[in-house]
Amino acid sequence: MQFNTILVPVDFTVNTRVAIEKAIAICDGPNPAIHVIHVPEPTSVFGNYRIFFTDGHYADEREDSRLQLRLKECLLYISKLRSDITTCYWISYSTSVERAIKEKAVDIAADLIIIGKNSRHSVLPFLNTVVPSRLSKSTGISVLTVKPGALSSHVKTVVVPISPKHPEKKVAVINGLGNKFHLHIRLLLLVEKDDDPQTLQNSLLNMCRMLKYRALDTISYEVLYAGNRNWGILRYSRSVEADLLIVNPETETKIGWFNKHISDELPVNSKTQVLAVGRRVLSLAK
Q: pTM, whole model, 2 decimals?
């Protein structure tokens, strides 16, 4: 698995810098490419519905030219650090930020979407304009969420929760990252009240078997009992100071009554990156 084509939504804040830095570090493959997309602020907002009013058009020429200049600066920065990466920018005057990202990611056949995030709508998660897990599920594309605290950190300690559902997706991603970084893989088996011990044991053995011949620095595992699986994943990641958490977007990203994304519980200075592995990874890994 290689992240050959990466889409990075940019807002020209610290989110942009951290997301672009991670894209440069991860981008790989025979024809590496990074696309940046900007969804301008609307004239007004009603709930999550964005409305544009500018002389009867979505934007005037001056504003569009200003945005293009800033986006070209992003591409120049990437080219200076990695001259082998092809770059491209896009502007979308969409009424939905998430829909604009989704449509462009599908259009360019992205392998990865990187979301820079320094806000925390942990109390009112519906205020989030982009929900990484929902974006991954709707597109089948993996989504990496990063906070400013991860700007200068390198991927070393990787926490991988074990479950019977599609472990090969996570293995494909681990293999790809293992070719670029020196990784310590921490497999985490969380046991809840109604779990079948034999099924969990088989899941752990299966994952260990798939990783047995991979070029990884170290692999360890831990079995913990947890009243709530996803809270257990978050607590364990904090305890080992994980650099990266690889999760299933359907079952391992939601926390609390309001189904907050797990990244909303991470502080702005957190170095832990959250990678929701999309289902498309299977076809890419073949």
A: 0.87
